[in-house]
Amino acid sequence: MRAMDVMTSKVITVDENASVITVAKLLAERGISAVPVVDSENRVISMVSEGDLLHRAETGTERRQSWWLEMMASTNRLAGDYIKSHSGNVKDVMTRDVLSVTETTSVADIAILLETNRIKRVPVLRDGKLVGIVSRANLVRALAMTINEPTSSTEADDRTIRDDLLAELKAQRWAEVAPANITVKDGVVHLWSSYLSEQEKRALVVAAENIPGVRRVEDHMRPVPAYLLA
Question: Do 15 and 55 touch, CB atoms closer than 8 A?
């Protein structure tokens, strides 16, 4: 499997001029632990995570050091800690050194990258622009797809099923599904996309069920959040 097979393609992002409060609310409401910070061309310039918001003056959790460690620390270090705990702007708290992968990076390489760097997610780039994100949860999801499934279908059969389904959806005006949100394993179609209505959701399932060779359709889809439609 590659990044394109498991990544989340509808990625929530913010720009560097967003407020810390806005990002905190976004993380809490969406149940996510980080968001990419992108520029006007959708290029990733940083990430802002729960870790970046852990030590804040508002909650009384800013870093406190013993007097002797504080005396040894440079003024630049102390000033940097103060900015990160007191600034209301994302550009002052975000993590700028961001690791990334491409759509064709193998999930094995991504797992090693996450583990060795002790990070929870990595953005997926195409020509330098954000097209998805792979998290530890995505890798666990990929693992779950491989467990206890019959092996009657070949990889070539799965590829044919996926190609046929993508072709069918491409011909439908109502269907806006990123290829990365459709995976097939041993004849079982897994749908991971977001949907606007129950009719759209059901139509996606029906389209998958009608593809020759499909044994079962697993629905992992979620509705598009209401605030994104406002």
Answer: no
Structure tokens at 199: 């009719």
∠ Cα 157 201 35 (to 5°): 90
Is this structure's pTM higher than 0.70?
A: no
Q: Which domains does the chain have, with CATH numbers?
A: 3-143 (3.10.580.10), 150-228 (3.30.1340.30)
Q: How far is it, in rounded angstroms, from Cα 127 to Cα 119?
A: 23
Beta bridge partners of 38: 44
d(CA 42, CA 39) in angstroms, rounded, equals: 5
Mean pLDDT, consecutive 10-residue stretches, the chain (230 aa), reads 86 90 88 89 90 77 59 66 81 86 88 86 92 88 64 70 93 85 88 86 94 92 65
